């Protein structure tokens, strides 16, 4: 859903942006909210208006060089040509801070107007500026425009450029994939900064630990501008292995303030407790830009570690609805497929089939995501997959842990659903919110507020109430159930509890992988599918080899079973989309709604669930807890963490 930038909203935000009585970190959030309004409004350049540009431009009268620098950055990233006049004015203002003028020059290059003579003239003039930060920036911008001009003649090539990050880079990444070659270019002082920038962004796109360490070597460059860009790129990667280099550079008091500023914001983007401690050390630094950068960086860190429901990219309603329907459907169809009167299928083979299908779907999505379909080159797709999967063995092998756990988890869920009714399974499985929260605390260093822990306790109580049978139902079960059926219920409950543990750990581990590298979500899912298929086949061999040899791998497969397999495969993709456009809280919200849906459908169609008063009380507690955990501290302003890849 796009955000509609009405005049009153823009005017109100603009007034708050220039209000010096407001905390700087709040004004930064307002700035990026304005940027988001423009970016989510009219996409066509001809339809873009100057309203947001004018609203942001008012802040150039502020005394904070950091704020004005960020305003220039936003104007460049908005791809709104109405900003050209203001950016040229800022670039040519000899009384303006060099950091602000640098960003104005880079923004003019980002807008890509290689046919605008006013832009060319301004950049050419300032490329001779005695301040290296300004002259080097303008020369890089001119080189970028020249590159764009050359590429414009080849429309197919220019449209097929793969874009890993959402930001507009000051230089296109080189096509080289060897880290050693790129590092040599990165550190070669005899090469142009434009070419070294291209090597830098190529290393960023590789994103491995080795590439991050190579980028950190760039801090030895003689150009302060280049060191500044090194820090910015490390902020995009958000790798914890870059913390020592960033800390070292920030500690050099004689370092250019632009470099130290960028190091501070990058530490905020990484957001660990160690990063916060470093930033707090420099809150009283002698350089105003550094002090303010640390203040803003701590706000970025708060966002990175919060569980607040944010509208950074807009709530994707269609993804939310899809997840609700998928979560409900998979429970009901799985339950039906395992209890219907038909030849039983082997659940472990269904897991293998769903992983294989997920991999195939993701390959198609990689094709469309990278716009490889423009030249219909199968070889390019194969090369892309080869480079991402086999060309980065260390990155690929990281997925063995979550894929192995997911394989175990999926089989546990099949067992649980064979012995539990749909509603009991669905609500009990919500304990994964507790395990996920604990894993987030211990693995990601996230802070969970007191009211959120209270909501988690409410959730646990709600789950207990929902699974508590009514007196009539309990008496009925006691009079009719055999010891075997009690054992089955115990096995089912044990299976779902084990699944919650594997779900929490695997989910947070996967989230950590996604947030510490630039690899596409779909490529990560392909990697998961590869190992998921392998682990799944191992489980088939260990537990069901004899049955497969007797009646075949696909024994008992029917239309219903194939629907189960499809829902299982598509579920992973829907979750990935929700994580991409929202966060894990949305998953909890969607699951709480699916509790109601699955219970209602189970009662009216499957006839295997009898709701009690305890169930209704528990369901209300579960849903209330989910809302409290995800909505109470909702922040409507956009956080500054704009360096993070979307």
What this model shows, in words?
The chain is mainly alpha-helical and 646 residues long. The chain folds into three domains: 1-156, Leucine-rich Repeat Variant, CATH 1.25.10.10; 169-304, Leucine-rich Repeat Variant (Alpha Horseshoe), CATH 1.25.10.10; 317-631, no CATH class. 71% of the residues lie in helices and 0% in strands. The protein has helices at 7-17, 24-39, 51-57, 65-77, 84-92, 98-110, 117-126, 132-152, 155-159, 179-187, 193-206, 209-216, 224-237, 243-251, 257-270, 273-281, 288-304, 317-339, 347-369, 378-390, 393-397, 400-419, 422-428, 432-444, 450-466, 471-480, 483-515, 521-551, 559-581, 584-606, 613-631. Helix 5 runs parallel beside helix 7 and helix 16 (273-281) runs antiparallel to helix 17. The longest helix is centred in the C-terminal third of the chain and has 33 residues, at 483-515. The chain is elongated. Residues 41-47, 155-161, 307-316, 372-376, 474-484 and 632-646 have low confidence and may be disordered. It comes from Rotaria sordida. One of its GO terms (cellular component) is Golgi membrane. Belongs to the nucleotide-sugar transporter family. SLC35A subfamily. Belongs to the deoxyhypusine hydroxylase family. Fe cation 2 binds at residues 228-229, 261-262.
Secondary-structure blueprint of this entry?
Elements: H1 7-17, H2 24-39, H3 51-57, H4 65-77, H5 84-92, H6 98-110, H7 117-126, H8 132-152, H9 155-159, H10 179-187, H11 193-206, H12 209-216, H13 224-237, H14 243-251, H15 257-270, H16 273-281, H17 288-304, H18 317-339, H19 347-369, H20 378-390, H21 393-397, H22 400-419, H23 422-428, H24 432-444, H25 450-466, H26 471-480, H27 483-515, H28 521-551, H29 559-581, H30 584-606, H31 613-631
Helix pairs in contact: 1-2, 1-3, 2-3, 2-4, 4-6, 5-6, 5-7, 6-8, 7-8, 10-11, 11-12, 11-13, 13-15, 14-15, 15-16, 15-17, 16-17, 18-29, 18-30, 19-28, 19-29, 22-27, 22-28, 23-30, 24-27, 25-31, 30-31
EC number: 1.14.99.29
Pfam families: HEAT_2, Nuc_sug_transp
Enzyme class: oxidoreductase
């Amino acid at each position: 859903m796009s955000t509609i930038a009405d005049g009153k909203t823009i005017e109100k935000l603009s007034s708050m942006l220039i209000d010096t009585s407001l905390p700087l970190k709040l004004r930064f959030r307002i700035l990026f909210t304005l940027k988001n309004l423009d970016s989510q409004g009219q996409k066509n350049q001809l339809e873009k208006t100057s309203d947001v540009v004018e609203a942001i431009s008012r802040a150039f009268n502020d005394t904070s060089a950091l704020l004005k620098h960020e305003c220039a950055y936003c104007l460049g990233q908005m791809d709104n040509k109405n900003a050209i006049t203001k950016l040229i004015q800022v670039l040519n203002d000899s009384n303006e801070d060099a950091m602000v003028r640098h960003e104005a020059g880079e923004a003019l290059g980002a807008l890509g107007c290689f046919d605008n003579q006013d832009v060319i003239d301004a950049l050419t003039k300032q490329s001779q500026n005695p301040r290296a930060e300004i002259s080097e920036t303008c020369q890089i911008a001119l080189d970028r425009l020249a590159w764009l001009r050359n590429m414009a003649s080849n429309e197919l090539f220019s449209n097929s450029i793969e874009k890993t990050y959402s930001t507009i880079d000051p230089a296109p990444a080189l096509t080289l994939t060897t880290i050693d070659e790129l590092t040599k270019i990165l550190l070669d002082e005899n090469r142009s900064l434009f070419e070294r920038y291209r090597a830098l962004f190529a290393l960023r796109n590789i994103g491995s630990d080795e590439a991050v360490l190579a980028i950190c070597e760039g801090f030895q460059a003689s150009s302060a501008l280049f060191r500044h860009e090194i820090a910015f790129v490390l902020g995009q990667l958000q790798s914890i292995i870059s913390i020592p280099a960033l800390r070292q550079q920030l500690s050099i008091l004689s370092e250019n303030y632009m470099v130290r500023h960028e190091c501070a914001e990058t530490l905020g983007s990484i957001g660990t407790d160690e990063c916060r401690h470093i930033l707090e050390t420099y809150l009283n630094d002698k350089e105003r830009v550094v002090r303010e950068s640390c203040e803003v960086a701590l706000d970025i860190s708060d966002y990175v570690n919060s569980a607040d429901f944010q509208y950074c990219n807009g709530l994707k309603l269609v993804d939310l609805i899809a997840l609700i329907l998928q979560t409900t459907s998979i429970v009901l169809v799985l339950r039906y497929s395992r209890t219907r009167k038909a030849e039983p299928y082997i659940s472990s083979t269904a897991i293998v089939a769903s992983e294989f299908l997920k991999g195939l779907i993701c390959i198609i999505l990689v094709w469309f995501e990278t716009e490889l379909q423009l030249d219909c080159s199968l070889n390019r797709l194969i090369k892309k997959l080869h480079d991402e999967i086999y060309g980065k063995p260390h990155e690929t092998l990281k997925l063995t842990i979550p894929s192995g756990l997911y394989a175990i988890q999926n089989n546990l869920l099949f067992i649980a659903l064979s012995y539990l009714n749909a509603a009991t399974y669905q609500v009990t499985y919500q304990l994964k919110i507790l395990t996920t929260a604990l894993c987030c605390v211990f693995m990601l260093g996230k802070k969970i507020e007191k009211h959120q822990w209270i909501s988690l306790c409410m959730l646990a109580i709600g789950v207990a109430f929902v699974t508590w049978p009514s007196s009539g139902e309990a008496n009925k079960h006691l009079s009719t159930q055999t010891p075997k059926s009690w054992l089955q219920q115990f096995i089912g409950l044990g299976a779902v509890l084990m699944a919650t543990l594997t779900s929490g750990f695997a989910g947070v581990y996967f989230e950590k992988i996604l947030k510490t590298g630039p690899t596409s979500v779909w490529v990560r899912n392909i990697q998961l599918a590869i190992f998921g298929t392998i682990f799944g086949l191992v489980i088939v061999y260990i537990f069901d080899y004899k049955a497969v040899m007797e009646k075949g791998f696909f024994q008992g497969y029917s239309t219903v079973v194939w629907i189960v397999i499809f829902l299982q495969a598509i579920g992973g993709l829907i979750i990935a989309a929700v994580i991409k456009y929202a966060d894990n809280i949305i998953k909890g919200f969607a699951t709480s709604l699916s509790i109601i849906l699955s219970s209602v459908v189970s009662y009216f169609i499957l006839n295997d669930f009898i709701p009690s008063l305890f169930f209704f009380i528990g369901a209300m507690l579960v849903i209330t807890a989910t809302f409290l955990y995800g909505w109470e501290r909702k922040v409507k302003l956009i956080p500054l963490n704009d360096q993070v890849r979307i």
